Amino acid sequence: MENVEVLEDLVTEGGSTCPVCRHRPAAMRIDLGDYRLFECPGCGCWSSDALIRSATVSFEPVSYFANTDADRTRWEGLANRIDTADTGVGSVLDVGCGNGAYLEFVGQRLPNARREGIELDPDRAAEAAARNPDARIHVGDARACLPQAEGPFDLITLWDVFEHVPAPAQLLVDLAALVAPAGRIYIQTIHEDSLVPRLGKLAFRGSGGRVSYPARRSHEPHHLAFFSRRGLRLMADRAGLDISDLWFDRLDRERMDGSPLVVAATSALLMLENLLGNGLFVNLILEPAELRESGDSSPRNDRTRGRAGD
Description:
Blueprint: E1 27-31, E2 36-39, E3 46-48, H1 62-66, H2 72-82, E4 91-95, H3 101-109, E5 114-119, H4 122-131, E6 136-139, H5 142-145, E7 153-159, H6 168-176, E8 179-190, H7 195-206, H8 213-217, E9 225-226, H9 229-238, E10 241-249, H10 260-275, E11 281-288, H11 289-293
Parallel strand pairs: 4-5, 4-7, 5-6, 7-8
Antiparallel strand pairs: 1-2, 2-3, 3-9, 8-11, 10-11
């Protein structure tokens, strides 16, 4: 696999290299004062230097973290798409596992599966461990914790995590090395070509920067990369992965933070956008390229694939 050699030159680390496709330079398009947004002419992804500038979010994500179980329909949808119960998924790694709600769901659906999680926040990691006493929970940065994970894994998931990572292309390379030969990687992340980010950038540009709130609110500083479909495909190719499935959805209203008016308006916009075939969230299932090249694109019930107890 190809490695990213100059991580310190990424936009997310204060440089000018796109953290998605490594095109250089990415162009600074929007200056929000305490951080800036860059557009990559190579892949169409956007990125932020908020991390290196220590910018802080404009809201407290109370509803977002308090209502994680509202995503249960998404968890069930993913399980149905990859037929976890019928195809022998025996090991799952949840990167950015938060309070462990998804790992708990996996344990209920697949009681014999070996489960591991990685969580940066110590308090949420402790909650995840309490909810999942039979799972291994690693505390710290995702890339730093991966060597501790006991791969290979039949399923690796990243729910609302990829946009927080300074070097997403390199993380995907690392994860590709941990996925089982017939395994899957699932990613749900921000879709930059969604209506809400587009309107935020349009308001900023149209007002000459005087109307900055929509751009900031749709590109909060805890998010470092904002993905186009082209950028996601380029990353997958470089990691030796194929995108076997891709679809769009939106953030549930129960998990939105902000004033009731903003939440209602945003929820309505996102619902309309979904009806038109687009969405704020892009979901993708990736599999090793060798699997598709072999002509077998369905998961196999193979006892050598990182199963529980092996």
